[in-house]
Amino acid sequence: GDSVTQTEGLVTLTEGLPVMLNCTYQTIYSNAFLFWYVHYLNESPWLLLRSSTDNKRTEHQGFHATLHKSSSSFHLQKSSAQLSDSALYYCALSDRGGGYKVVFGSGTRLLVSP
Amino acid sequence: NAGVIQTPRHKVTGKGQEATLWCEPISGHSAVFWYRQTIVQGLEFLTYFRNQAPIDDSGMPKERFSAQMPNQSHSTLKIQSTQPQDSAVYLCASSLVDSSYEQYFGPGTRLTVL
Q: Where are the domains of chain B?
């Protein structure tokens, strides 16, 4: 079945440094959708980014990710971390889109310090 | 738009007792999802409904967990004979059924089994 791998359970950064959270996936479907959800403490998870077409970058709120089907990856990046970026980040996969079953990775907690 | 509503927000049960969790999806959303969130496993898919019909319950522990969606305005997740390992945050999400639409999450119910 479909699966998503996030290799880092915890990423700690100093404010101002670049952010990269890894996400790789496995699916038999050629047109799978990839998502990044963010979960701040005491809030509900919400969608940060969704993938576009192969090798196309998508951006939102300073974060960006590019779907690379050749390497089955959808890494999340930001040029400069802010304290307010501290949260739990989930990479997720759906073979048909958000209204269908979505498989989540185990999550990466990002902690940004001054 | 009140968002996805989940009640109760916190529930404490004794081992062996039953717990029923409620979810009211966003009006007009025809897909409803249940997830379990733990520190160890991250966000685990449990089950989902589309147009009130159960579509996929592959993530549900078979013996004690059940979910229903008797009408378009609410879904329930019932856990019989709760065990300490059931302690987690249970999240409900709803979505339009479309290839590009995101899932909207509720605040979750924190279940603690003593």
A: 30-95
Q: pLDDT by residue (tens digit) across A12-67?
A: 999 999 999 999 999 888 788 899 999 998 899 999 999 888 888 999 999 999 99
A contacts of B97 (beta carbons < 8 Å): 99-100
- If you measure CA to CA, which chain A residue comes closest to B5? A44
**Listed residue (A31, A27, A25, A32) closest to A6, CA to CA:** A25
> Nearest residue on chain A to B47, judged by CA atoms?
A101
CATH code: domain of residue A41: 2.60.40.10
What pLDDT was estimated at residue A98? Answer: 52
By C-alpha distance, the chain A residue nearest B92 is A44
Residue A97 reports pLDDT greater than 60: no
What is the total count of domains within chain A? 1
Tell me A9's DSSP state.
S
A43 to chain B: which residues are within 8 Å by CB? 107
Spatial separation of the C-alpha atoms in residues A38 and A82, rounded to whole Å:
14
* Mutation choice for A interface testing from B103, B104, B105, B109 by most A CBs within 10 A: B103
Question: Which two tokens mark B5?
Answer: 């509503």
- Cα end-to-end distance, chain B, whole Å: 36
Superfamily of domain B30-95: Immunoglobulins (2.60.40.10)
Q: What is the DSSP string of A46-110?
A: EEEEE--STT-EEEETTEEEE-BTTTTB--EEESS--GGG-EEEEEEEESS-TTS--EE---EEE
